[in-house]
Amino acid sequence: MEGMEPKALPLTEAPFNVPLRVVEILGGHGARRRLLSMGFHRGDVIELDSQAILNGPLVVRNVETDTKIALGRGIAQRILVEVADERR
Question: What would the DSSP string read from start to end of 53-88?
Fold first, then answer.
């Protein structure tokens, strides 16, 4: 529908086991550089692994490279995502 854009949300609020597209990485230069070095780039398709522990780190899988990484919730809040239309 016209005028309806997908809503970006922090990675900490995203659903598990659903393809998500990285929309933006917030924060200062250091935080953005750290996330880029860990393989988080704008446009990447990722998924939250349902094995994440309540209030603990989030396990994130990059769908394109099939790599997994654990992120603390503070840094995960700086990654804005939207639900991806399709799996790659």
Answer: PTTSPEEEEETTTTEEEEE-HHHHTTEEEEE-SS--
Q: DSSP letter at 16?
A: T
Look at residues 6, 13, 14 and name the one whose alpha carbon lies nearest to residue 46: 14
The answer to whether 81 and 14 have CB atoms below 8 angstroms apart is yes
Number of Cβ atoms within 10 Å of the Cβ of 5: 7
Q: Structure tokens of 29?
A: 């230069």
For each of the domains in the chain, give its residue range(s) and CATH number, in order of start. Answer: 9-83 (2.30.30.90)
As a whole number of angstroms, the distance between CA 75 and CA 2 comes to: 33
**CA 18, CA 63: separation in Å to the nearest integer?**
10
pTM for the full predicted model: 0.82
* Mean per-residue pLDDT over the chain, rounded: 85
